[in-house]
Write a structure and sequence with these properties.
single chain; about 45% strand; mainly beta; 4-stranded antiparallel β-sheet
Length: about 250
């Protein structure tokens, strides 16, 4: 996706491994709108979903309607998401017609899901997730590879007493549970999360001293019984401050 100065987003696709790109759709957002994310369908490579915030603070989701192996994406159908979070909403597919939307706004960290390709939305976020004044999204939503019912998302609090939220869903985004404990020590800002399907571990990168921590058995353990001692320290980058991304490459 790209954002020209004209208040539209342009969605491009490539069927040449990125060597060349063709325009699939232009989506109107208005000047000052914010791009959210783009997500590929888990089983149909011709389908994508796009999320963004318009200049009037409305969250929009567009889903293309070509399916069953069509060589090009589109056309897109656009839906408004009621009561959605404002800035940079992040979207992911969690099933054939199921979408999960995560966003942040002062006073509210919102988790929502749709079971009909974005036509209607339900609010999934527990009230305990909106108790601090400001949240900032660290990562959209990541899935357990091969199991779309297990989702993770991490959100940071930026008020004077940080209360970070590392939430897990085991029912494809209908309900979420906040983790009971994060690693001990100075954590400051969480920067990225990654999941390793090889050993069911969740990794978190932190700004302070470029720490990377690991939580084993992430999809199956009791999320409400995690202690600081369950986390394993993986690495700290000597002489550096801040990890900006994290990915698991393989086993």
């Amino acid at each position: 996706m790209s954002k020209p100065a004209t208040g539209t987003y342009k969605v491009f696709f490539s069927d040449t491994n990125g060597d060349s790109w063709l325009l699939a759709q232009e989506l109107t957002i208005g000047t000052g709108g914010q791009y959210g994310s783009i997500a590929a369908h888990p089983t149909d490579s011709s389908r994508v979903a796009v999320s963004w915030q318009t200049s009037s603070n409305t969250t929009k989701v567009a889903v293309n309607t070509f399916a069953n192996g069509s060589p090009t994406p589109g056309p897109f159908t656009t839906y408004s998401v009621p009561n959605a979070a404002g800035s940079a909403p992040q979207i992911i597919w969690a099933g054939a017609t199921r979408l999960v939307l995560v966003g942040d706004r002062a006073g509210a960290f919102r988790l929502q899901y749709s079971v009909n390709d974005g036509q209607t939305w339900s609010d999934a976020n527990p009230s305990s997730f909106s108790t601090t004044s400001v949240y900032e999204l660290t990562e959209g939503v990541i899935t357990k590879a091969g199991d779309l019912s297990v989702l993770f998302t991490f959100c940071k609090s930026s008020d004077s007493s940080p209360r970070h939220v590392l939430a897990r869903s085991t029912d494809a985004g209908s309900t979420w549970t906040n983790i009971s404990a994060l690693p001990s020590g100075t954590l400051t800002t969480p920067q990225a999360i990654a999941y390793d399907p090889g050993d069911d571990s969740l990794y978190v990168a932190w700004w302070a001293s470029s720490r990377v921590t690991k939580l084993p058995n992430a999809s199956t353990r009791d999320w409400g019984a995690v202690t600081a001692g369950d986390w394993i320290e993986i690495a700290a980058s000597p002489g550096r401050t801040g990890v900006r991304g994290l990915v698991v490459l393989g086993n």
